[in-house]
Amino acid sequence: MNLFNFSVWAAIIQLLGSLAIAGYVIAAIFSLVIRCNVYQARLIVAEGVLTSLSFMVAATLLKTINLQTWRQILVFSVILSLRIFLKKLFTWEKMQILTIKSHV
After folding, report:
1. Which of 27, 61, 78, 95 has the most beta carbons within 10 angstroms of its beta carbon?
2. What distance in Å separates the CA atoms of residue 78 and residue 13, rounded to the nearest whole number?
3. CA 59 to CA 9: how far, in whole Å?
4. Cβ atoms of residues 48 and 90 within 8 Å
5. pLDDT at 20
6. pLDDT for res 102
């Protein structure tokens, strides 16, 4: 494993993002089982997805160093756009949960 290879660091960052979302999902399950609060569990998962997507966007940006063809640039653009869209969607979802929770 060459630690000076950007692809290796991108993979490590993606792994950390995946572990982050797994940890948040486990925390949400415990919250749901212990407190029976669906809103709190949804909020925990939304936070986890936002954290994970931050890692994923960072890894995607790191991969730009290795782009060599127009097809790779197109695929990168689509993946980055999708991740940014998902991040905005989950930010909106988090605000919806907080709004509902404040009214309950």
Report:
1. 27
2. 19
3. 8
4. no
5. 92
6. 77
